[in-house]
């Protein structure tokens, strides 16, 4: 990723490598499987005097190791890195959960654990908050773990891994923005708008019809929420694949990323409409207008005011080394825009992508021509992204619960939703003009990822989506997320060979 390749990836092509490396790999797997994930869970009567952060360090390192292993295997098989990281996460989460590793049990519940803790702090008992937020079949085990001697430490590890993963996806979209061009984005803005609108409305309409016909006993509110979930798009997976394929500056990429920003705003509006109908029985137009106004205000302010603020900030650090100045300014700028995006209701990655589009090396004129600088912004930020992004994808994989798909009814519903989800986004590629790989655009809009999970969890918390339907939606999200990397690679490879 971004030219950062561990040494063992380079030596893996040496003759006899596979045989000589086997003991090392097996030993490392055993050590890093049982050390990080059991060190924090083992009960002991020995008084511990070590650094309390040590289990956090070991656990994060273990996750990163498995991410590296998944990337290594994926590249050896000629697949995008993200696919290997996701699959390793799925295997890791389900195998260690089967063996009763407490940390994995906590990690698999994702943000639900933090919602549970928040409700506990607001006055509910641990048992009440767990049964309110979690599925019945896991609430008892989570309660037991949290009340155990290592509960606080496990929560600390889970929080750290979650934070690192969020930093990772922010830096990923920031780097994607750095390699994009505002001018090129403007050229395809009409294409992005058409792709986003089609990619939102088509899956929603088809999803509503499919759910209504397939599960007639569901309420209309449930049909609407399932449909809204199908309209969501998560661009993090696509951005990672496009970067691996070296396609970040293509027309298709600009269309996909532009559509993703518009899609995020449309998704918020749809979510506000559906939630308003469910909660109050009517559409709250004031809330919709507020979302549109705040989103427009953020994007306009970011592109008009940020250049002036950047020049002033760079002037203040003019006595620093150019590498220090670039790194500090870049980090602060991307985090501020990510925070402001979240403040107005947009995803943090929208702010991160906007930061990448706005910031560039030419701002740092105090140190001379930026073409002669020893390190670019990309060179400085890339190591952070290379370490943190794999944690995000492995964590997403860990949260995939394979046992939820043993119900045949869940599988049938999930397959129908999957077909609708895939077709609806593939059709969106037709919104791009001639001369563009429309299949690649449609495939790039396909993954639902964490955005779809957020939509589904909101529906579940409102009581309109039951456990089986939630599991079916999760399966749809998993499949659309996993099939995107190989399909996108195949689509671009066909274009290259044509």
Task: Describe the model.
- It is a single chain.
- 75% of the residues lie in helices and 0% in strands.
- 46% of the residues are buried.
- It is built from 22 helices and no strands.
- Helix 4 packs antiparallel against helix 22.
CATH topology value of the largest domain: Na+/H+ antiporter like fold
> Percent of residues in helical segments?
over 70%
N-C termini distance: 27 Å
Gyration radius (Cα, Å) is 23 Å
- CATH level-1 class of the largest domain: Mainly Alpha
Task: Describe the sheet with the most strands.
Answer: none
User: What portion of the residues fall into strands of 2 or more residues?
Assistant: under 5%
Mean pLDDT: 80
Count up the domains: 2
Going by CATH, the architecture of the largest domain would be Up-down Bundle
Number of strands: 0
Give the SSE layout:
Elements: H1 7-11, H2 17-39, H3 54-76, H4 81-98, H5 102-107, H6 111-121, H7 126-133, H8 136-146, H9 151-178, H10 182-187, H11 189-214, H12 220-230, H13 235-244, H14 251-280, H15 285-316, H16 322-343, H17 348-358, H18 377-398, H19 408-428, H20 438-444, H21 449-461, H22 467-497
Helix pairs in contact: 2-3, 3-4, 3-9, 3-18, 4-18, 4-22, 6-7, 7-8, 9-13, 9-17, 9-18, 11-12, 11-14, 11-19, 12-14, 12-21, 13-22, 14-15, 14-20, 15-16, 16-17, 19-20, 19-22, 20-22, 21-22
């Amino acid at each position: 990723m971004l030219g950062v390749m561990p040494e063992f990836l380079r030596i893996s092509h040496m003759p006899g490598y596979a045989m000589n490396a086997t003991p090392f790999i097996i030993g490392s797997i055993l050590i890093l499987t049982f050390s990080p994930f059991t060190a924090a869970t083992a009960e002991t009567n020995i008084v511990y005097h070590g650094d309390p952060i040590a289990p956090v360090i070991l656990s994060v390192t273990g996750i990163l190791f498995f991410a590296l292993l998944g990337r290594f295997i994926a590249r050896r098989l000629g697949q995008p890195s993200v696919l290997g990281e996701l699959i390793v996460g799925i295997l890791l989460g389900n195998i260690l959960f089967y063996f009763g590793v407490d940390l994995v049990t906590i990690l698999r519940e994702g943000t639900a654990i933090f919602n549970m803790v928040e409700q506990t702090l607001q006055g509910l008992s641990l048992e009440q908050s767990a049964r309110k937020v979690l599925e019945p079949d896991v609430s008892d085990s989570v309660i037991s773990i949290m009340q155990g001697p290592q509960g606080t430490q496990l929560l600390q590890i889970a929080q750290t891994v979650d934070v690192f993963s969020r930093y990772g996806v922010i830096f990923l979209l920031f780097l994607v923005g750095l390699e994009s061009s505002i001018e090129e984005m403007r050229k395809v803005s009409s294409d992005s708008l058409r792709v986003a609108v089609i990619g939102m409305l088509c899956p929603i309409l088809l999803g509503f019809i499919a759910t209504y016909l397939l599960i007639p006993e569901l309420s209309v509110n449930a049909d609407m929420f399932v449909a809204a979930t199908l309209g969501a798009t998560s661009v993090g997976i696509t951005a990672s694949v496009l970067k691996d394929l070296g396609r970040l500056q293509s027309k298709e990429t600009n269309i996909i990323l532009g559509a993703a920003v518009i899609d995020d705003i449309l998704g918020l509006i749809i979510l506000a409409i559906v939630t308003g109908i469910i909660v109050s029985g009517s559409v709250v137009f004031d809330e919709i207008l507020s979302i549109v106004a705040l989103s427009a205000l953020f994007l306009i302010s970011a592109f008009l005011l940020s250049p002036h603020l950047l020049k002033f900030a760079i002037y203040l650090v003019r006595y620093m080394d150019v590498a220090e100045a670039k790194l500090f300014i870049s980090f602060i700028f991307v985090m501020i825009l990510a925070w402001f995006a979240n403040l107005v209701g947009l995803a943090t990655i929208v702010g991160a992508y906007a930061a990448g589009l706005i910031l560039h090396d030419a701002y740092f004129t105090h140190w001379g021509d930026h073409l002669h600088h020893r390190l670019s912004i990309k060179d400085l930020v890339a190591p952070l992204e290379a370490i943190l992004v794999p944690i995000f994808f492995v964590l997403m994989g860990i949260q995939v619960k394979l046992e939820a798909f043993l119900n045949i009814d869940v599988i049938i519903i999930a397959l129908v939703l999957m077909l609708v989800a895939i077709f609806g986004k593939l059709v969106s590629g037709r919104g791009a003009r001639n001369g563009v790989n429309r299949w690649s655009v449609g495939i790039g809009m396909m993954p639902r990822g964490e955005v779809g999970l957020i939509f589904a969890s909101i529906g579940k918390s409102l009581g309109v989506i039951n456990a089986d339907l939630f599991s079916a939606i999760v399966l749809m999200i998993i499949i659309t997320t996993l099939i995107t990397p190989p399909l996108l690679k195949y689509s671009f490879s066909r274009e290259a060979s044509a």
